[in-house]
Each structure stands twice: as C-alpha cells, then as structure tokens.
Amino acid sequence: MRSIGRFVSLVALCCAFVVAAPLTFVPLTGVVGGSPAATGVYKADLSTAGIGSILGLIIQDNSAGLGGSPGQFSGFDLDAVKISTTNCADAACAAAAPALAVFDFVGGVFFTPGTQRVPVDPKLFGTGPAGNTVDNTVATLALFDGNSTTAIPGAFGFISMGDNGALFFNLTAPVTTTGAFLYIGEVGDNGEVAASSIRVTQDPAVPEPGSFILLGAGLAALAIRRVKHS
User: Fold this and answer.
1) Taking the CA of residue 20 as centre, how many other CA atoms within 13 Å lie in the half-sphere pointing to its CB?
2) Residue 169: which H helix or E strand, with range?
3) What is this structure's pTM?
C-alpha cells in the first residue's frame, strides 16, 4: 500500500512541474455579448509574464462561493478567450480584433468542474453530457457572444466553471509573448476575473497523452521494484 501511495504522489508531482506565470488584467471600457449583452472584457499584456513564449493557459475560479448565481451557473462564467496582437482599449475592439489561431476548443481544452451552490443541477452550464468537458456548441469560447442571463431558454455562449473549477488550454502552436495580448470575457461583468487565477505556461497546460503513458510505465516499474524490495 505504501508503494501505491508513492506512485500516486509521484504522478501528482509530475503535473506540478508545469511552470505557470500569473497574469495581471485590466478592465476595458464598455461591454459586449449577445442578448442581453453584459460581458466585461479584461486584457493582459503577455510580455509581462516574464517568459518568451507560451503553449498553455490555465483559468481557475477562486470565488470561494461568493457572488454570482447558484446551481448550473455557479462560479466563473467564461464568455470567450482570445490572444491577439491588437492592443485594445475597449471591449468592442477586443471582440472584433483578429485572433491568433492557436486555440482548439474541442481537442485542446480540459475541464475540471467546480462545485455548485444550492440548488444543485445535474451539471454546470455549457458542459458536455457528463459535466466534465466543454460543450463548445453552447460555450462558443472563440466568440464574445454570451447572453448574460440565467434563464432557460435564453442562456447561451459561455461556460460556468463552478466554485474552484478549472479550464486548461493546450495551444496548437507556441505564441511569442512580445506584442501579444490575452483577452478574457466575463459574463455579467461581476468581478469573477478578479476572483480567479489565470496563468500561462511555457509547456502544454496538460501533458500530452504519450507523456502520461511513458510516465505511468516508468512509475509503475518503480512501484513494482519497491514492492519486491519491501
């Protein structure tokens, strides 16, 4: 049993090796979105991250259950995410700015759902059938098009992450941070960006499956050797 515990600890340790740099966001003037339109847009200058290029992005809700709506709309409601070389001062500019084609919102995004505030729904809004993936036909994370409402029908164009939920994005190509800006859309513009942790990484935010296989094989062999010697 001790060897299995060491194995699990080593797997957790491997994932902690992803070096993440925190970002500072500034709010842009105005709001954008669908109907009703109340998405606030926040900008981070990626050159301030202190790393030359990035391959991953991590967004984590840190709201601690405060503010926002309950049930399927708990936590950070993310309208959209974009990296652009256009330096915008207002939300409309950010929504229209040409985006670098580095996000894969189907195969390159991983979701760890957070907890819901009562009353609890079967799953968080904008998620897949099991509630642990992003349904991008609903979330439409490439577009600042969120309908800022909790009415059903009516709500559309975003994902609710739940309290302490996390989104991990693996970019399809490295992005040079000089002259690049990250834009985040917050549905409702109610302070959820301020109550979150948003970081960029030099490596993929989630290791490639092959890396997991190789790591698992190596650590499994280590665990077996420890069993034999225990």
Assistant:
1) 20
2) strand 166-176
3) 0.84
